[in-house]
Amino acid sequence: MKINFKPMVESSEHLNLRIPASLKKRMDNTRARAAKLGIDYNATLVANLEEFEKEFEAQVTSKEQTSAKSGSSSLADLVAPEPASNGHNAGRDNGGRTLAPSSSGDDVA
After folding, report:
1. What is the DSSP letter of 106?
2. Which H/E stretch holds residue 79?
3. pLDDT (tens digit, 9 = 90+) per residue, 22-68?
4. Percentages helix, strand, coil for the chain, rounded to the nearest 5?
């Protein structure tokens, strides 16, 4: 009898993450469609999260090293501004503060 050894599976943990309702609905729809094709949506998502984490960590490390060389320790140097075009951040600055419209129509803090 041939025995196929399987690698030990790493223990898993839960991650609670708030996402827009529209994204959740799209993900649920895609998950159901993938299941009909025999595709493991969650395993695919985790694999892509692993790749994202590697790339994101490398970019943060690079920004930290650049900031250390320039003497800047501002968090703004590490955080890219969020686009206001998605409707979720309209009327807010990058710090989450509500912006008041000016007479020129531009948002000001």
Report:
1. -
2. none
3. 999 999 999 999 999 999 999 999 999 999 999 999 999 999 998 88
4. 50, 5, 45
